Amino acid sequence: MQKLAVTYPRMIHYRYLKEGRKLTRMAEPYSVGHRIRFYREHLGWSQTQLARKVALSQKQLSRIEQSQVMDLSRDLVILIGRALKQPVINGELNQWLYHFGYRGYVEPLLDLPDEYRLWLSRFDPFPAALLDIGWFLRDWNVTMARLFQVSQGALQGLERNLIVQLFAPDALLAEQWPKELLTRMLHRLIVQWQPYENEPWLNRLKNDICQRTKIPWETLINTYCQGLVGTIPSTSEVVVLRAHDDHRILRFRSNLVPIPNRPDLIITHYYPIDVVTEKWCWQDFSG
């Protein structure tokens, strides 16, 4: 899979030693506590204000910010990150979790960083869409919108979920996909969701999807993925679609691009594999 370059928060911090009239900058190791203090001060909050939001005393938070507490629970790290918001958005919360040896924080519909539209624009003029771990279509570029004739405002709420669009008979994107492609996509989803089987959000989402599609989850799996459970799915496949605007047959190869430090997000993009498809993609960009 391709990797997408994004800007990370710096992992080196500095302290200043006074030597006479001169200040000497000395590198310090990465400290989660220092980063928590940085985000708190950026918001203009006192230690007491943040402590109240995460059910700690001011003294406990002070010890955390001074790196005097070396073992924080995963739930507390997530609670602090969510209270500060920005560490969730830019992915630094996951750096904190990895620092303590925990898995990353993954849920559907988390807030997006400001640069996400820039990520998608880098794939122009070829179709690209941003998906989260719940397979919600968070955004897509103009070529993807043209390919499926679906504008940003056309999908709201659960209708933005790709599984709903693939399997609900009255969805906007229904009946556009061959069964073989549906099988491969659902197989990939099963494997992607496997580590989160005990997460409350996954059970809620499955129930919502089943109610919307009117297909029980087990029926969906048995219909499309019989015999595939436990096997490794492909991360790239050939996608053949008919263009809505001129009915040309378009052929792409799909690819997945992970977002560093945001394990809940992934970009899926379609790269043309013949001249006709490439010309179609460039149609709105050639001028």
TrEMBL record:
MF annotations from Gene Ontology: DNA binding
HTH cro/C1-type domain segment(s): 36-66
SMART domains attached to this UniProt entry: HTH_XRE
Gene3D superfamilies according to UniProt: 3.30.450.180, lambda repressor-like DNA-binding domains (1.10.260.40)
Sections of the chain in a coiled coil: none
InterPro entries: Cro/C1-type_HTH, Lambda_DNA-bd_dom_sf, MLTR_LBD
Taxonomic superkingdom: Bacteria
Name of the molecule in the record: Transcriptional regulator, contains XRE-family HTH domain
